[in-house]
Amino acid sequence: MTNQYVIGVDYGTDSVRALLVNAHTGEIAGTHVYEYTRWKQGLYCNPNQSQFRQHPLDYLEGLEQSITGALAQAPVAVRQQVKAISVDTTGSTPVAVDERGTPLALLPGFEDNPNGMFILWKDHTANAEAEEINALAHRWDTDFTKYVGRVYSSEWFWAKILHTLRVDAAVQEKAYSWMEHCDWISAVLTGNTTPGTIKRSRCAAGHKAMWHEEFEGLPSEEFLKALDPRLAGLRERLYRNTFTSDEAMGTISTEWAEKLGLPADVTIGVGAFDAHMGAVGAEITPYTFVRVMGTSTCDMLLAPTEEIGHLLIRGICGQVDGSIIPDMLGMEAGQSAFGDVYAWFQRVITEPVRDLLGNEAANELAKNLIPHLAEKAAQLPVTENDPVAVDWFNGRRTPDANHTLKGAITGLNLGSDAPRIFKALVEATAFGSKAIVDRFLGEGVPIKQVIAIGGVAKKSAFVMQTLADVLQMPIKIASSDQACALGAAMCAAVAAGIHPDMATAQAAMGSGFDASYEPRTDVSVVYQKLYQKYQQLGSFIEAATSQHTPVAEAV
Ligand SMILES: Nc1ncnc2c1ncn2[C@@H]1O[C@H](COP(=O)(O)OP(=O)(O)O)[C@@H](O)[C@H]1O
Ligand SMILES: O=C(CO)[C@H](O)[C@H](O)COP(=O)(O)O
């Protein structure tokens, strides 16, 4: 049999990577990472206001550079054997587009306007709009939030659109429609970005835009108009139908085939979010909980729709038929800060060193600090009197989204040194994970195994052991350090018809597992007590410092 290759393209928060994979053996023939240049300079962002925007040119340049970079590592003959490309991206990362599907920032007059750019998933400028959506949805005859855990988040599609239309009259005037990053970039590869004609991702639509068959698509025109008259008519200019990632969006355009040096008949798959394709790459099966563990976590759970579809799971980021694997219910949850909590502590320690001793000393310290603290923390006993922290340093994504909540550390004394505080922070992130697991179990969704992918899963044995102890569950680590791109490549192979379904693609192309963490019974017992303290502290913070009552609890 002649070799057939597929390309998975994974757009993360800071960079995009392309993976060139043999569709029959899973052998990696090339890979290349491209860091977004404008983003790296901090352009168009204002972290103090939680504004995070990305320029479409960063994505276009990254598409070309990452794919040509991966192809350059393989023999030239491989190019002619490339059959398909699929793309995953962060989300909800929407952009305003004109009648031809061009992001406004690519049009004259909008080049430097952050409101004409992609609004990155972690942008929280739309907190107020998310609250309005929740309040109206819970009063409306049909609760359009019912399949997204009954809590709409400021990280999502409609909140971001509404906020942008309100603050920028020029964008409101020019925006014909809106697109998620995963839809736009896949459409770009086909040469047709016209809204209304492209195949929109089921994953993006169902988890972030309240799309559901029961609603005949997106929330009703009446609901959207009641939210704000500025939304009138937009529903018609968005989409009715959505598509799963086993489907083809189209064929590569002549322009992109030439630019990348690929054949003219390359299939372009329907896009999806990074974590969902990551779950495919991590060989997810029913009732497997796949955690994408990095800066934040994105947690994926899969179940047969006929077994779980009748449940409405509270406080998660959605349950969507086909968002991970076709004809299965894909469920999403996650923590807004995970590795970012450790990164915060690292900054607290290194910044005064930078000021007093200069960059060289600070950079050297920063490079070694987390592994050093982890080594020291691993030697400490786990006792009921240890400091307890809460992990909501970037708000709480799940259970029950509330991005106004803050983190905390308690139980400090004069002996609380850096390793002890670091240990409490790691435990806090693990307790946040337990809250998610307990929510799924409490709502009647079993979890049969846990698989982890992402930077933290690969880099920190201490974090992963703590997590296994807190969850009281074994955790397997996927071998691939590019599981999202590998998942995208598997989706591409199915979209091109090389494999009949995702399970076959996973079996042929999967990279397996390279480590496993088993819970330690004696430590787990103590953690159950510390977890109760975490819950009490969380309740106190929620009552004392939250600027609003979490909506799921209020209804
Ligand atoms: N040795 C380590 N132990 C624990 N966390 C780490 C370690 N090294 C880096 N991290 C954390 O990993 C996170 C980055 O994860 P990664 O998966 O590489 O990126 P991203 O989430 O952007 O895809 C950072 O938040 C950082 O604090
Ligand atoms: O919420 C998401 C997917 O549903 C985000 O895409 C995800 O959290 C981004 O993560 P990363 O920075 O690791 O790419």
Structural domain count: 2
Unreliable sequence segments: 549-555
What is the CA-based Rg, rounded? 23 Å
Query: Per the principal axes of the C-alpha atoms, what is the gross shape?
Result: globular
Oligomer: single chain
Could you tell me how far the N terminus lies from the C terminus, measured between alpha carbons in angstroms? 59 Å
DSSP helix fraction: 40-55%
CATH superfamily of the largest domain, called what?
ATPase, nucleotide binding domain
The chain-level mean pLDDT equals 96
Content-based structural category: alpha/beta
CATH architecture type of the largest domain: 2-Layer Sandwich
The fraction of residues assigned to DSSP E strands is 15-25%
Number of strands: 20
Write the layout of secondary structure elements.
Elements: E1 5-11, E2 15-22, E3 28-35, H1 37-40, E4 53-54, H2 56-71, E5 82-89, E6 94-97, E7 118-119, H3 127-139, H4 157-167, H5 169-174, E8 177-180, H6 181-190, H7 202-208, H8 221-227, E9 248-251, H9 254-260, E10 267-269, E11 272-273, H10 274-281, E12 288-293, E13 297-304, H11 305-308, E14 319-321, E15 328-335, H12 339-357, H13 359-378, E16 388-390, E17 408-410, H14 418-442, E18 449-453, H15 455-459, H16 461-471, E19 475-478, H17 483-495, H18 502-509, E20 513-517, H19 521-545, H20 551-554
Parallel strand pairs: 1-5, 5-10, 5-11, 12-18, 18-19
Antiparallel strand pairs: 1-2, 2-3, 4-7, 6-8, 9-10, 12-13, 13-15, 14-15, 16-17, 19-20
Helix pairs in contact: 3-4, 10-17, 12-13, 12-14, 13-14, 14-16, 17-18
The chain binds adenosine-5'-diphosphate and ribulose-5-phosphate.
